[in-house]
Design brief:
The structure holds 2 protein chains of 2 kinds. By secondary structure, chain A is an all-beta fold. Chain A has no helices and 11 strands. Chain B contains no helices and 13 strands. In chain B, the strands form 3 sheets. In chain B, strands 2, 6, 7, 8, 11, 12 and 13 form a 7-stranded mixed β-sheet that branches. In chain B, strands 1-3-10-9 form a 4-stranded antiparallel β-sheet, with no helix packed on it. Classes of the chains: A mainly beta, B mainly beta.
């Protein structure tokens, strides 16, 4: 059973860069898409983007100018950087795996990032 | 982007009664070549990540009780809880994985009447 765990600062100052890492255990990071999703308090889910083990990426058009994702297969980790953050970026950030049949079959517990 | 719209936003159902949630996509999520609908349903309880219930619109994830069922095709989908239990109180989301960006419905909150 694959396990995902987000890590990173819980608070980021406005205009700075949010950086999060997701560590994958119990399975290989190869052969899957790895995704970041966020959820502001009391609101819905927003797909930020995904990265394949090869490093290929897809980003949400609404965030594309500020998002960078990377993967480190040697550490079984993938990362998210979101630049020029504002209060609107305050949310719980989840990492998730897109399984071999394309749906999100494994999720991290989520980490709250506050911009202030 | 494919817009996903759920209805209702919330509903209250008596224990043991049926709960029905609808989800409509702004474009078809049916992939003709394999005849599969790229539509999933998730359940989210407070303080927890979403939990996958249904994928391919109607395939139940392993371990999900059979009171949960999904139906529909193309642009219109339904999640049915046949006999609501107390532990089913949650927010339910539909999500399309037909194209990127992946998109979610706004969520439907299910409560006990």
């Amino acid at each position: 059973q694959v396990h995902l765990q987000e890590s990173g600062p819980g608070r980021v100052k406005p205009s700075e860069t949010l950086s999060l890492t997701c560590t994958v255990s119990g399975g290989s990071i190869s052969s899957y898409f790895w995704t970041w999703i966020r959820q502001p308090a009391g609101k819905g889910l927003e797909w930020i983007g995904r990265i394949y083990a090869s490093g290929a990426t897809d980003y949400s058009p609404s965030l594309k100018s500020r998002v960078t994702m990377s993967v480190d297969t040697s550490k079984n980790q993938f990362s998210l950087k979101l630049s020029s953050v504002t209060a609107a970026d305050t949310a719980v950030y989840y990492c998730a795996r897109e399984g071999l049949t394309d749906h999100f079959d494994s999720w991290g517990q989520g980490t709250l990032v506050s911009v202030s | 982007d494919t817009v996903m719209t759920q209805s209702p936003d919330s509903l209250a159902v008596s224990l043991g009664e049926r709960a029905t949630i609808n989800c409509k996509s702004s474009q078809s999520v049916l992939f003709i070549s394999n005849n599969k609908n790229y539509l999933a349903w998730f359940q989210q309880k407070p303080g927890q990540p979403p939990k996958l219930l249904i994928y391919w619109a109607s395939t139940r994830e392993s371990g999900v009780p059979d009171r949960f069922s999904g139906s529909g095709s193309g642009t219109d989908f339904t999640l049915t809880i046949s006999s609501l239990q107390a532990e089913d109180v949650a927010v339910y989301f539909c999500q399309q994985y037909y194209d990127t960006p992946r998109t979610f419905g706004q969520g439907t909150k299910v409560e006990i009447k």
